[in-house]
Each structure stands twice: as structure tokens, then as C-alpha cells.
Amino acid sequence: MAKIAYILLCHKDPVAIVQQAQQLTAKGDCMAIHFDASADPQDFQEIQAALADNPNVTFADRRIKCGWGEWSLVQATLHAISAALRDFPKATHFYMLSGDCMAIKTSEYVHNFVDDHDCDFIESFDFFESNWIKTGMKKERLIYRHFFNEREQKRLFYHAFTLQKRLGLTRKIPSDLQVQIGSQWWCLRRPTVEAVMEFIQKRKDVMRFFRTTWIPDETFFQTLVRHLIPADEINSRSLTFLMFTDYGMPLVFYNDHYDLLLNQDYLFARKISPDAVELKERLGKLYAASGIEFKISGEGPSLFKFVTERGRVGRRFANRFWETEATLGRDRELMILVCKKWHVAKRLLGKIKQETNIPAIDYLFQEEDTDLPDLGGIQATIEKRTRHRRALIRMLFDYFQTNRMIICMDPGSLDLLHDFYSDRSTTRAMEIQCSYSDSYLKGHASRIGLAGEQTPQDTFNRILPTILRDIDDESDAIRDANFENYGRIREVDEIGDFLQPIASFLSIPEDKALAIATTPHLFSD
């Protein structure tokens, strides 16, 4: 009977990781864990302590900091594989998982399935001929060298790419390799894994090549397995059920997706929402059960495609089934910096990012050219961002892999504030109240289309009091809403008066709040 070594890459939620490890090893299987070195050290210590007495769990000898699209994800996988090969000599199969994966079949079914199929399950399609990559870079992933993280070092990433392209600094792919691409969620037999590990020891040129490709977790194992293993021993599919929304983001499963998941012709599913407590509990019990028959209908992808093609919300009779819980997430915290003078909020936000490293975004609902990642088009226009605001913010939480995030908002967007405050996540707001000179009010009048370069002074004299009253009314409306976790700082106050509102807004000590409060030239026009 198969003995599966689960290769788990994770970076958060130690309680869920411990539970996942205990469930998957309870029937005699084993697990090798790589916990991201950039995560909280206390989380890793908690996981180690909880699993110390479990002989079926081991840890990668070396933990590294992982970044999306980087070689680090492949390297972390190799570290975990090495530990599993050494510590679990009886393991027959190696199954790649993340902390967001859960089994959607019983352990009995999983083992029978693996025993009945003597092959490797890994998506591996021709990189250049297939249509696996829908948008963005394709050959550029390979022929140029990528040294920077596209998400965290976007300007450096694209500057290096553009420079290489301009200078013609392309490189050749190792001549004996036919690059393949596919999902990183695979299940490989032990001889295959051993062959890959032996190959990379001999072929340093291949390792050098893949280390500077972009998103190598979608090409490295896929290419090497196809290179080393006969084609008739490879089933080019993943055993992990995952789908992507029409915005190109992974579909998240919730409590009401239990029956849908069980009917799919897969062994595991990804991503399971952290808030889907009931779903996790039911799937955990299912894995330990026996004698259950599954009626495989496999309607998930086709149903998903059918509903997607009916258009967006408002053009269908009901919400799409993956939108049944349109929440940011119970454990997430959205902090909203409210200010009419956008440059003031941006200065303060810059200092906050410097002092706290909390991901932060400027006026994404007011400024079209706000620097945003590519989220499949939902971020393309202010209209789209506003219409799909919760989906957008949730995607940004997922993109930055964080549970805390700051955005800037104009005080005129009271409806957006109400909407975010009604979410089950934690919402905090801090308003920056500024003083407004006639010069600023004139500029503001021009920006909102009430005046131009040739507007006479007597016209300004009539409209400026109205504009100032309108700004004051916006601020009054926010205070009248009686939002929880709301604070404000005022330009007319002393620096010492800023400390408590900033500390409460960011949940930081007052000494760090002081560094933020003393932002140079904060209120300068």
C-alpha cells in the first residue's frame, strides 16, 4: 500500500498547520514541512512544539525566505524533499501541498487511487506551444534573467527586464531541455523524485538557468520530470482541485462548497478559506472516515465556466457561486487613512510604511494611476475598483499575503466607508483634518472642475466659502456616522495630540507613533 510523504510549504496560521499535519499523518503517512523564514519565529516554534512527538513529521533542515514568482519557492520545496527522502525511507509517493490545501476524499480513497495508478501526476505542457499562460510574459520568463521580486521590487524588476531587452541580453535555454509548464501541485513517485534530485546534483547549468527564470515553480519540476521519465508514465494533470476567477485569482472555497468539492475527480482542493471553519471541520472528519463511496460528477470547472460566461453581478439571476461570502475575511484588518489633502495623507503613509512595513496603497478609489498590481483587470479603472471594491481589497490582501493593510480615502467617499465598516473584518479609520488656504481651495476648485485658469477673482470669492463648507460637511458626516475604531488628528493640534490616535489606528506603541507624527513637512502645501 502507498505511503505518502506530503511536502508542505506554508507561512502562516500555525494552529491550522498543526491540525493539517495531524490529520494527514494519522493514518500512517508522513509530512515534511518548510515554514517560511520570513514568517513570525514564534509561529514556527509553536508548530515545532506541537508536532515534536509526531514521528511522521519532519522539517526542512534549512528555512529560507520565500517570495512569489521567485526561485526561493522551488528551493524551499527541494529542502523539504531532501528531509522527506532522508527521514521517510518507506515513503512511496511525494505529494506537494500548501497550507491552504485540504483533502476532499477519505484517506482510504486517496491510497486506493494512488495504488491503482502507477504514474506521476504533474501538469506538464509545452511551454511555447500550449496556451497555459493566458496573459503577460511568456518567453520573457526564460530568455531574460530575473533577479528581483516582481511584487515587492516592482520597479527594479521591470527596470532590469527593460534594460536587458534594450541591450539584447537574451540567453539560451539548455539545449537538451524542452521546457514544460503547469500547476505546481503534483504527486510524484519516489523513483521520480530521486531521479530529479540526482539530476540537479549533476546539472549545475540547469540549476543556474532556473534560478533566474520567473515563476520557476510552474516550470522546474514540470520540465525535469518530463525530461527524465517516459511519457507513458506521466499523467499530465494535478490531483489538487483549483480554479481561477475571471480576474485571474485563485477561487476560494467556503462552507457551502462541501458537496461541490466531494463530487470532483480530485484528491485535494485549494484554496480553502481561513474563515470556512465548518468546511475544514467536515473535511477533516471525512479524511479519517472509511467505507464512503464518492459519486464523481466533476461539474466544478464546467459550472464555473457556465456561470462566469453569464457576466458580472447584475446581469445574472443570482451571484456567482464563489461569491456567496463577499467578505474581506474575519481575521483581516483594513486601516483607512482619510484626508482631503491627498499629498498630506501620502506623506504620512510613506512614513507609516517606513516604520511598520504594513502594506499600504494610495487613493485607489480616487486616482486612476494609483500603483496597483495586475489583478486580472479588476484594478483597471476606478469604476471597476469601486464596483468590485470588496473583491479588489480581498485580492490585495491575498496579493500581499497579509492580514493588515492600509489604504487612503477621500472624505467624500462616505459610502465606501460605510461598506467597509459593515464587513465582518476589522476596519479602522483615522482622519487627518487640515487647514485650507485660499490658494489650496483655488487649486481644489480647478481639480474638481469648478474653476479654470481664467476664472475671475470675484467668482473665486463667491465659491471658496461654499467649497470650504462642503469639505467641513464631509468631515462632519464621517463623525456623525459614529464609526467604531475612528480617530483623527488635526493640523491645529500639537504633535503630542497625534500620538494616541496614531498608536490606536496602527496598534503600535507611542514611541513608534512619535516617529510617524513627526513626519517632516507633513502639512506643507
Strand fraction equals 5-15%
Largest sheet report: 5 strands, mixed
Q: State the helical fraction.
A: 40-55%
Structural classification: alpha/beta
Going across the major beta sheet, what is the strand order?
Answer: 3-2-1-4-9
Low-pLDDT runs of 5+ residues are: 309-325
What's the multimeric state?
A: single chain
CA-CA gap between termini? 73 Å
The gyration radius over C-alpha positions equals 26 Å
Mean pLDDT score, rounded? 88
Using the alpha-carbon principal axes, give the shape: elongated
Number of helical segments with 4 or more residues: 20
Total DSSP E strands: 17
Question: Short summary of the structure?
Answer:
The chain is of the alpha/beta class and 525 residues long. It has 20 helices and 17 strands. It has a five-stranded mixed sheet with strand order 3-2-1-4-9, sandwiched between helices.
